[in-house]
Inverse folding.
């Protein structure tokens, strides 16, 4: 991919919180960083060392070359990070197709499953950019923590172990430790599904159902996550790691998580319109459908999808979950 003496050239697609934080991490790892944002004001602000819309109150180093021009962003790049929301991936890949240099790795950093098709994001890349080696970066990592330089660990997965190791080394820096994995599906599924359970945990907190209920929700949610992992072909142990258990622990316990905060608003019966991006919302609907299609027992997932669809209330969902037939504590 690159000689050791050359400065890595990294392109970030997306000028939101995570795109900006990862651009900074790459800058601190010594890369030449270009960032594509569709909004000119955001691009200008990032070039000046701030992103008040998505990272309010954080001033950061200048050096990221932000642009609204895709050709400029992708010119002679040797690695692309895709950091726009999961549901926009297909559109973004179709836009970059004409400008993407051949055989350059595309690292997926969004967390979700395509709502319309049930496709994992790596499958969408294979469909639209078949020549791009695909990788996934995921794990417990709030953009604000990474942008502030706080210690964070993630996992980078690629089918080819050498690529996974190379990318993990490329993006690791003093405050960002990247582990390598060859289980792309496990790593992406862990990140996508934890968002749904973060909404559930937030709803429990918002409805003031207590810390015991919250622990039960997260634990049983983790069982459902692992069951879906089996269906998709994830390696079970991957979901015990940073992308899976690690990200579940982070986002099911902190209002810093937009998915958890969305759940809190749901549990309190507040207005949901205008809340920040909560990737678990579209993913809940499709994940519940896939679970039903494959005969996977996933009552929490189904409850979240039904609440979001307005079919039941949080309290009705809890009542239904608590009165299910008694059984052994099946852990898979
Ligand atoms: N914020 C965080 O702490 C983390 C976020 N992620 C994931 O990263 C992804 C992006 O999240 P954030 O950056 O936080 O979201 P954000 O809401 O802060 O920013 C999203 C950005 O994508 C842009 N965008 C949306 N649709 C687009 C399109 N069709 N074409 C071009 N640009 C488009 C928006 O203009 C905005 O700049 C999500 O999947 C999220 O789950 C992953 C780890 C941490
Ligand atoms: O994925 C994240 C941290 O790992 C960010 O979570 P939210 O999208 O819920 O804010």
């Amino acid at each position: 991919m690159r000689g050791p003496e050359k400065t890595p050239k990294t392109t970030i697609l997306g000028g939101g919180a995570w795109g900006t934080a990862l651009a900074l991490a790459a800058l601190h790892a010594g890369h030449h960083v270009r960032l594509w944002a569709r909004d000119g004001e955001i691009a200008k602000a990032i070039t000046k060392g701030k992103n008040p819309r998505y990272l309010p109150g954080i001033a950061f180093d200048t050096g990221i070359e932000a642009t609204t021009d895709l050709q400029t962003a992708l010119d002679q790049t040797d690695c692309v990070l895709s950091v726009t929301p999961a549901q926009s991936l297909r559109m973004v890949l179709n836009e970059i197709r004409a400008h993407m240099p051949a055989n350059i790795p595309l690292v997926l950093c969004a967390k979700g499953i395509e709502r319309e098709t049930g496709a994992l994001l790596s499958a969408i890349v294979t469909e639209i950019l078949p020549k791009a080696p695909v990788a996934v970066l995921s794990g417990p990592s709030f953009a604000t923590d990474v942008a502030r330089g706080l210690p964070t660990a993630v996992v980078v997965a690629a089918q080819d172990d050498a690529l996974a190791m190379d990318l993990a080394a490329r993006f690791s820096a003093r405050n960002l430790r990247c582990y390598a994995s060859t289980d792309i599906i496990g790593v992406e599924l862990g990140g996508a599904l934890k968002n749904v359970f973060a909404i559930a945990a937030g709803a429990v907190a918002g409805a003031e159902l207590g810390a015991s209920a919250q622990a039960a929700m997260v634990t049983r949610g983790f069982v459902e996550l692992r069951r879906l992992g089996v269906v998709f072909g994830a390696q079970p142990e991957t979901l015990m790691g940073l992308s899976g258990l690690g990200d579940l622990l982070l986002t099911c316990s902190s209002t810093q998580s937009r998915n958890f905060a969305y759940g809190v608003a749901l549990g309190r019966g507040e207005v949901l319109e205008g809340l920040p991006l909560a990737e678990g919302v579209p993913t809940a609907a499709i994940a519940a459908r896939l679970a039903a299609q494959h005969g996977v027992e996933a009552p929490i997932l189904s409850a979240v999808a039904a609440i979001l669809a307005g079919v039941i209330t949080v309290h009705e969902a809890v009542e239904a979950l608590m009165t299910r037939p008694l059984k052994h504590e099946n852990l898979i």
User: Anything to note?
Assistant: The longest helix spans residues 184-206. Residues 294 and 315 are 27 Å apart (CA to CA). Strands lie at 9-13, 32-36, 65-67, 79-82, 106-108, 134-138, 152-158, 176-181.
